[in-house]
Amino acid sequence: MVFDVYTLVEAVWLILPAYAANGLVPLVGIRKTHPIDFGKRFYDRKPILGSGKTWEGLVFGIFIAMLISTVEMLAYPFLPFDASPVPLSIVPMSPVLGFLLGAGAMMGDAAGSFIKRRLNLKRGASAPILDQDDFIVGALLFASFTVSVKSSWILLLLIITPIIHLTANFIGYKLKIKKQPW
Ligand code: CTP
Ligand code: MG
After folding, report:
1. Which terminus of the chain is more solvent-facing, meaning fewer CB atoms within 10 Å of its CB: N or C?
2. Which of 157, 163, 37, 13 is nearest to 93 (CA)?
3. Which residues of 98-134 are buried (b: 16+ CB within 10 A; e: fewer)?
4. CA-to-CA distance for 34 and 70, rounded, in angstroms?
5. CB atoms within 10 A of CB 69
6. Ligand 2 center to residue 84 CA distance, Å?
């Protein structure tokens, strides 16, 4: 069963460091940054990744994911496992897993930008689903090196993430924190 609260808790627990990394990485944009693709163009003469994918963002994203995973690791012994009527598969967190989730999220996000540039979409242009789920795919792929990732987690996260993302961005847009509502 995919759409139950147990799957949701297990999946969100695992992906939280990647969510934090992806959600906070725009903060690096307020300072001068250095593009991962060094401003270079691909064979199609379009930017490889574009100026929205930066070294600062990559490092910051990994750092945030490692920070959150460490907090989760420290919180683990205090989790109220008895409160659940069914045994939960709560993945034990570590800074190493946080590194994988953060690096995976940033790589997935960069792969999404690579695809967008090939489709002739400018930096910041909207690519529904791809924009929201690219980091999830990367994070879960990298996490699967050390964790057995349930297919129900993957499915659930791919479905709920665009919904959460659009809701959060719409609130940010209404609060005038974000320029576009996506
Ligand atoms: N960011 C960054 N480095 C990264 C990823 C993100 O600096 N590796 C910052 C950039 O300031 C970017 C912002 O986070 O503009 C939001 O990320 P995202 O929406 O993924 O980038 P876009 O600017 O929308 O560019 P793209 O069209 O390539 O997705
Ligand atoms: Mg974007």
Report:
1. N
2. 13
3. bbbbbbbbbbbbbbbbbebbeeebeeeeeeeebbbbb
4. 28
5. 27
6. 37
Does residue 109's CB lie within 6 angstroms of at least one atom of ligand 1? yes
How many Cα atoms sit within 13 Å of 66 on the Cβ side?
11
- Kindly state the tokens that stand for 140: 């879960």
Residue type for 40, please? K
pLDDT at 39 over 90: yes
Look at residue 2 in the predicted model and tell me its pLDDT.
Answer: 67
Q: Specify whether the CB–CB gap between 153 and 14 falls below 8 A.
A: yes
Question: Measured from the CB, is residue 106 less than 6 Å from ligand 1?
Answer: yes
Q: Tokens representing 166?
A: 């659009």
Q: Is 55 in the pocket of ligand 1 (CB under 6 A)?
A: no
Closest listed residue to residue 16, CA positions, set 172, 169, 157, 166: 157
Q: Choose among 108, 95, 98, 94: nearest CA to 136.
A: 108
- pTM here? 0.94
For residue 26, the ligand 1 atom closest to its alpha carbon is 14
- 35 strand-pairing partners: 54
